[in-house]
Amino acid sequence: MVTGGAGFIGSHMVDALLKRGCEVTVYDDLSSGRIEFLEHCMDNIEFHQRDLVNDNGLKDILKDIEHVYHVAANPDVRIGADDTWTSVEQNIIATYNLLEAMRKARPKDPASLTFTSTSTVYGNASVLPTPEDYGPLMPISQYGASKLAAEAIISAFSDNFGIKASVFRFANVVGSRSTHGILFDFYHKLKQDPTRLEILGDGLQRKSYIHVSDCVEGVLHATETQKTDFEYFNVGTDGFAVINQIPGIVTEAMGLENVDFHYTGGHKGAGWKGDVKYMSLAVDKILATGWQYRYDSVQTLEKAVREIISDLES
To answer: Where does the chain have alpha helices with state H?
Structure first.
């Protein structure tokens, strides 16, 4: 089962699992997911439009599920500065409800779990690239805090109820079917005014990016080769891109010239409250499983913006 399987990352996860010959159940309330992301494979999946926060029938769906890829979440980091509840409900309560249903559905042989977390659990890390054993973890966004809380709940359920689980902390994931993020935002801003682009922050932010296809393959490979009952993995690329590189990548892909780039200064040089200014993940651990990403951060951005433009203009 893929929760959030109609979303950006979730729908790519569904595609990859179907290619592996898996029987796939998709669970999504379509609050941020889009049914059109699954139209090409609806005949090959079982689809449930339901809500993890309010679903008394979840246990029945899970009785025949062997593994859950828990991708469902509130996907927008920025709203936490104004809306402190959504991340709690969609990331913490939803994860608890899923775990509780999993243990009750098959108490003697519960399904295993893969959880998609985030690099934002590290907050403003003093060690870059940041390894999985870095601490203390001090997230600065509601999103990062809620994902860290979900990780902790999963750890407890894994130990108490024998749920084999893995947690994947993502760098910034971009690519086809994106519905938010810097590339998506830049495209829409430039469509409104192709002469001027507002850029949040001071442009000196440094972040790691990974293409959604690389991300999904990394998660599946590490899950399939996992030997322990509970494991953490960073998923990203070596190195990073500087934010002031991205406007040029986007304008070139859109065929625009002489665009005025305006930097807002943001919050302490970052884009907004809760935005981590410098993020780079140590990925030695997942690379040691035999997985290898195909695109570095800049190559990822160049590929992803072409895909997003194609999505939006097709």
So the answer is: 8-19, 58-62, 86-87, 94-105, 142-161, 182-192, 212-225, 246-254, 284-287, 297-313
Q: Give the SS3 label for residue 205.
A: coil
Cα(314)–Cα(309) distance, rounded to whole angstroms? Answer: 8
Q: How many helices (H) and strands (E) does the chain have?
A: 10, 14
Confidence band, pLDDT 50/70/90 cuts, at residue 194: very high
Tokens coding 52 = 């993890």
CB–CB of 199/261 below 8 Å?
yes
pTM of the model: 0.96
Share the mean pLDDT of the chain: 96
Domains by residue range for the chain, with CATH: 2-173+209-235 (3.40.50.720), 179-207+239-279+295-313 (3.90.25.10)
